[in-house]
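*** Protein under study ***
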Amino acid sequence: MIHLKKISLNQLICLVILTQVGVSVLEIPYAESRHAGYDSWMSILIGGLLAQIVIFIIYQLSKRYPDQSLQQYIFSILGKPLGWLVNLLFALYCAESSLMVVISYADVLNRWVLFQTPFFVILGITLVVATYIASSTLRSISTITQSILNMFLICFVIIFISGMGKGDWRHFLPIGTHGIGAIIKDSLPAFWAYAGYELLLYVFPFVKCKKKKHIFIAMSIANGFTTLFYLLITIIVTYNFSESQLNTITEPMVYILRKFRWPVVQSLDILFMTIWLSVTTVTVFVYMFLSARYLAFVGKKEIRNHPLLVWIIGILCFSVGIWFSDRQSIFKFSEYHNKATMIMIALVPTIILLISYVREKVARE
């Protein structure tokens, strides 16, 4: 069985936080400063607010079917043909999300740390570890994620220490001169960086709590923490780099870690990226697990061989991933992924929620 026991609220918070944070930590606020410049910290806050709105929508949808996951109650709302299609789309999206994260970080490691190691080796090792963990139960995955949270906290301390170097607070001034339009425009890339909370569509009935509203509170705490974490990184990067530098440095956090001198550690950037690999792997195996669970409901009967589905997804991700060894193909794939993210985690749940309201109203009449 996939669910031997329910997960706790603390485990849910850990799952959401470590699924949200990933490769984007190294890139923030590059994408968020295209128009907003040194006002990108406002875009980060707005992105977190947009994510919170979507969390509320997903919570309202899940609350209507408290004992079922989306894979199951989707048939009651849309019928079997459309239900199968939605499950398939979510399975493909989650698999694609795993692939996006693993190839992005493999590219980072290949360029900054493992220069001589072939891309497919880094890709393969990461996917094998992630696939093995994803083939476990939800409770086991949650327990492993809680352990990896310690690695995340170490990285948090490293980021905070490295940000205390030389910089200029005048980079933030004057505030708001780029205009609200530019800030809102850059809040969309910020919104994409918060993806991960959509796992609530699946885990909602498997969270142990006294009241369902506690789940929403836990999700809000997790999203709030991620928002503050992204805000901290944005402030550190803006403090260290001018606006013109932000327009050219795609991974500013790596440069800050590399230039920071600490007597105890010679290369802080290598230490950070090595530890952060475990954090990134959480995002990969959570999405692989979700992809297998959605795929299990594509058909007349539920496919109960969960490990087999996960390994099939892992093999497919590796087979496709080896074609993304150059950065240009990753950039193109990222553009597609961002559009898919907007549709699958924001638009689709909203439409399903509205349809469920309409069907309930019609049934009453």
Observations:
- The radius of gyration is 21 Å.
